[in-house]
Design brief:
Strand order of the largest sheet: 2-3-4
Organism: Gordonia sputi NBRC 100414
CATH topology of one domain: Outer Surface Protein A, domain 3
Radius of gyration: 17 Å
Protein name: Mycofactocin system protein MftB
CATH architecture of one domain: Alpha-Beta Complex
InterPro entries: MftB (IPR023850)
Helix content: 25-40%
Structural class: alpha+beta
Strand content: 15-25%
């Protein structure tokens, strides 16, 4: 039995023919994350606090996500109270050295439609 992986397995006809596999950076992004914009938890998403962090369930896509960092949970919950994701990070006390990790987490949540731009 093969070991489970959390990364997508590339393959298919293009890989078999030797054609280059496109990098994730070159793929179009429908939900590009801009930290200067106002964001919120998607109205179709339920957030359930847990001792390890939180569970996010998207009722539209049926995706389940685990947030294993209490700071990220707090930031996601506070997005609706701030004019931008940058403001939410600042209010949470995220320093400049840690900021890229939190931006990456928020970008992943945006790409999976767990958070969305606030209008």
């Amino acid at each position: 039995m093969s070991a489970p992986t959390s990364l997508p397995v590339t393959g298919g006809r293009d890989a078999a023919t030797g054609d280059p596999v496109p990098h994730a950076e070159s793929a179009p992004t429908l939900h590009a994350f801009d930290s200067t914009q106002a964001w919120q938890l998607n109205p179709k998403v339920a957030l359930r606090p847990e001792p390890f962090g939180a569970l996010l369930y998207h009722f539209g896509t049926r995706k389940l996500s685990f947030l294993k960092n209490l700071a990220v949970v707090g930031i996601v919950e506070s997005l609706r109270d701030h004019d931008s994701a940058d403001d939410a990070l600042h209010a949470a006390g995220i320093d400049s050295a840690s900021r890229p990790l939190y931006l990456q987490a928020l970008a992943a949540l945006a790409s999976s439609e767990m958070i969305c731009r606030r209008k």
